[in-house]
Amino acid sequence: MVELAVSLTVLLILTAIAIPSLMRSFRTYQLNDAAARLSDMLKFTRFEAVRRNSLEYFKINNPSGTSWVVWTTPSGSSTGPLVTEKQLLISGIATVLPSGAPPGPASILAKLGATSSLDDSKSGAAGSITFDARGAVTTLAAYVFYLGSTNSPEFGYRAVILLPSGATQIWTAPNGGTWQRIG
């Protein structure tokens, strides 16, 4: 009986040590997954514009609280996704943040080039981005979408960059740190 009690005590101590590390890894995974899914939706919208040889719209909307819905539509006027349109829900620990919440984009701009600028007006706000039949963004702006959690900044932030050519990049930054490209 004593051996069983000692074994359980050791097991509980090891579990107490491992759980915070496991939870941190899980939260980081959720943040990386949300950034990858947002990037994939932008790539899908670009692909659809080229495939259909017409304008295609990437839409983002905040239907409630911290949940965000993004979708692809050939119609620029829809206010919500249709059942037949590809859509993605971003919620939970990883949500779309407005500019000013994560670290500033200075280190991203330094690595993209001095002539670059990032439009963060779509991050944390409802709106749309239009892709032309070549798969390029019609406004010739580089957009940034910030992801993270305002309640848990210790897990860091992700930025999904949409370049004017339609290509996407994923960047990461710890709370208060500088941005590094990861994808």
What is the arithmetic mean of pLDDT?
Answer: 89
Instruction: Look at the structure and give the CATH class.
Output: Alpha Beta
Number of domains: 1
The backbone outline, from C-alpha atoms, is elongated
Helix content: 25-40%
Structural category: alpha+beta
Largest sheet: 6 strands, mixed
Instruction: Give the strand content.
Output: 25-35%
Count of DSSP H/I helices: 2
Low-confidence stretches: none
Q: At the third CATH level, what is the topology name?
A: minor pseudopilin epsh fold
CATH architecture: 3-Layer(bab) Sandwich
Number of strands: 10
Instruction: Give the N-terminus to C-terminus distance in angstroms.
Output: 53 Å
CATH homologous superfamily assignment: minor pseudopilin epsh domain
Instruction: Write the H/E string, N to C.
Output: HEEEEHEEEEEE
Question: What is the alpha-carbon Rg in Å?
Answer: 20 Å
